Amino acid sequence: MGVEIRVEGLRKSFGRQVIWEDVSFSVPAGEISALLGPSGTGKSVFLKTLVGLLRPDRGHIYVEGDDVPRLEEHELYEMRRRFGVLFQDGALFGSMDLFDNIAFPLREHTRKRESEIRRIVLEKLDMVGLSGAEGKLPGEISGGMRKRAGLARALVLDPEIILADEPDSGLDPVRTAYLNQLFVDLNARLGATFLIVTHDVGTARVLPDNLGLLFRRDLVLFGPREMVLTSGHPAVRQFFNARREGPIGMAEEKDGVRAEGEVPPPLPIPPQLMPSDGRPRRTMRRPGAWLREHGVRPPPGSFIDDQGRDWMADWDLLKAPRAPA
Ligand SMILES: Nc1ncnc2c1ncn2[C@@H]1O[C@H](COP(=O)(O)OP(=O)(O)OP(=O)(O)O)[C@@H](O)[C@H]1O
């Protein structure tokens, strides 16, 4: 089962470069959350800080009773077992085949017998759709397969929290759609807490339960997907509409300099991805629930899927399990 991550007053700098001033928010247990932000806003630094690879200048990161920045090295070693991390490039060892890559954390962190390791590795390969590829070297498979192999390795110690750093970078839209479906299916099956860093607006619109935007040394917003997608925050609107006009500049140092131009309207909210078996995830919210509760009218065309079905109106019918395609 997933656990909550509670971040309080986090500040991080490298020399005179301040990455964030004061970040506070909670990543809800068992849900899928995504962090977005222009390049260089410290998204990767944030994930590394969560697992204690980097230390913040100040602030707290609570995972149940533990405050990650205050753990001793040997305690951090134990803490990291609770996290599965998918790095940007999969971070596989090029000289090892997929089997040995995925077995690596089990051999490092546990005293399991080789027969048990084999069972677990083959199970995780199957979970990510890579059965039969265990003998391949990372250089012999595609970028998408490398990501999935990295994901299998991240899953191997049954983590409660899964972090993924731009899992969709360098993937075509179809491979990205498959990977997003895999995240939803894994979340439904494992119930772990997922935190995904992405640049991909398409992913951010359909995958997460919660979204946040890092911008100008701050987390400008973090909350339910429907809240963020209908937000009037100019940086959020600019980002989701991929516009040049707005507070996000060409480079970090240009951010906030230009704020001229119309704030674009919010885009329709697409239905959230369902698990492949058609059953909602335990933590999944009813489409439109946040909007109704807060009296916000959804942008026209929201919650209509590509078959023309309205998920807000017909949720009870649509969520009934369907035969797998
Ligand atoms: N170990 C380090 N030492 C010094 N500066 C660093 C270090 N790691 C990251 N930085 C700087 O911190 C800033 C944020 O980097 P980070 O990689 O987290 O950005 P990002 O938001 O993930 O960007 P992108 O979306 O382009 O991957 C960058 O300016 C980077 O140069």
From TrEMBL:
Keyword Lipoprotein attributed: no
Record keywords, A-Z: ATP-binding, Nucleotide-binding, Transport
Molecular function as annotated in GO: ATP binding; ATP hydrolysis activity
Pfam families: ABC_tran
InterPro entries in UniProt: AAA+_ATPase, ABC_transporter-like_ATP-bd, ABC_transporter-like_CS, P-loop_NTPase
Domain called ABC transporter: residue spans: 5-241
Domain of life (superkingdom): Bacteria
Name of the protein described by the UniProt record: Phospholipid/cholesterol/gamma-HCH transport system ATP-binding protein
Organism listed in the record: Thermomonospora umbrina
Lineage of producing organism: Bacteria, Bacillati, Actinomycetota, Actinomycetes, Streptosporangiales
